[in-house]
Amino acid sequence: MQLSLQHWLQAYGLTRYTDIIATLIMLAAMGGLCLVIHVLLHKVLLPILKKQSDKSPHLWSKSLFKHLLFNRATWLLQAVLFQLLLQLLFDPHSILFTALTTLCQLWMMLLCLLIGFSLLDVIQAITSKSAFAQQIPLRGIVQSIKLIMAILVVVLMISLLLGKSPGSLLTGLGAMTAVLMLVFRDPILGLVAGIQLSANDMLKIGDWLDMPKYGADGAVIDINLTTVKVHNWDKTIVTIPAYALISDSFKNWRGMSESGGRRIKRSVNIDTTSIHFLSQTEIEQLAQARLLTPYLGDKQQEISEWNAQQGVDSASLLNHRALTNIGTFRVWLESWLKSHPKIRQDMTLMVRQLAPADHGQPIEIYAFTNTVIWAEYEAIQSDIFDYIYAALPAFGLRVHQSPTSADIRSLAPNRGHSLD
């Protein structure tokens, strides 16, 4: 077309600069045609599709526009039309044709990459609410694919500019592997970490992550190629390198959340000086407790039969078996927990005696609540121990408490007077 136009200009008496004039005319014609196509696509077609998308109840149709898929597709269509016009209007042996063709091909490669990004974003948006997406770090995988696509497109663009095949360029880049590994260290480690986290089901969005080394104690809100974001319970946000979750240890509370029960593991320290054998009067008083009536009846009969078989006398308490207040307290506490409406009876439940220490004799409660909600769990635990502390005097037991300054002052002689 360009040569025909030059001949036409020469036929009308133009003998100088016909090639330049023909080129300018071709560029103007192509620019005007491209402008018309651009207006039709972006001012007519896209708004119509946008209105239809807004009316649609489907998420995928809105995601197509939100992530600019149609917008980038129209730009790619314009680049293809521009390439076709170049082949129709310009001399394929001219320098301008070669330069414009190279630029157009680079532009199409970039648009293809951006369209690929948009497609991945649409897929991520559509599947983000599904159960499958909750099981894997989808965002990290998508970012990994984007990184690989970008590297491949960059290689293709460089090979186009240099006029060499991509294979030979990749071979030359092999010598730069060490540099590339250093530059992309975090993305590579993050990609490997994301695959391991997904394959081993170690972490997913919404899990309660506890990692004291990084100050993380909260819910996972984002897993991407290089980092994991944790929304702590104090409303702060901690960012952890993804590969740190593989190289370091962390605690995932997902098992607790899925089980439906949260563990209570707390001790009551008993003053050892308050531990004693129960007298008959104390036994009769405790027997009035509904939860202790069966135990005391059976235990007294067992002890009486054992003492009778052994023929022991009652001159000393050390000569025969007897009930203790701390043992009876443990039995009552376990029975009380088994009847508690907010304690899981299908999970481990026990009241055990730990080794005595400086702070008295620990009696530990090991049980699970029927809720995993933090506020409800703390309320149940507090109610249980409130009742335990109030019930201890009924067994003649006291809670161990270290002396305070007020206790020491109350024992000092002539309290309130100065020392001579």
Q: Can you give the mean pLDDT?
A: 80
Would you report the number of β strands? 8
Q: List the helices and strands in order.
A: HHHHHHHHHHEEEEHEHEHHHEEHH
CATH architecture of the largest domain: 2-Layer Sandwich
Name the structural class: alpha+beta
Q: How many H/I helices?
A: 17
Query: What is the total domain count?
Result: 3
Give the strand line-up of the largest sheet.
4-3-2-1-5
Please compute the radius of gyration using only Cα atoms: 40 Å
Proportion of residues in extended strands: 5-15%
What would the CATH topology of the largest domain be? Alpha-Beta Plaits
Shape from CA axes?
A: elongated
Largest sheet: 5 strands, antiparallel
What percentage of residues falls in helices of 4 or more residues?
Answer: 55-70%
CATH class of the largest domain: Alpha Beta
Distance between the termini: 121 Å
pLDDT under 50 segments (min length 5)? none
Family: Belongs to the MscS (TC 1.A.23) family.
Protein name: Mechanosensitive ion channel family protein
Subcellular location: Endomembrane system
Membrane topology: Multi-pass membrane protein
Briefly, what is this?
The protein has 420 residues and is of the alpha+beta class. Helix content is 58%, strand content 11%.
Structural summary, described in words:
The chain has 420 residues and is an alpha+beta fold. Helix content is 58%, strand content 11%. It has helices spanning 2-11, 18-55, 59-66, 69-89, 95-127, 131-135, 138-162, 166-173, 177-183, 185-199, 244-247, 254-259, 280-286, 293-310, 325-338, 374-391, 405-411, and strands at residues 208-211, 216-223, 227-232, 237-241, 251-252, 262-270, 350-353, 361-369. α2 packs antiparallel against α4, α3 (59-66) runs antiparallel to α5 and α5 (95-127) runs antiparallel to α7 (138-162). The longest helix has 38 residues, at 18-55. It is elongated and about 125 Å long. The N and C termini lie far apart (121 Å).
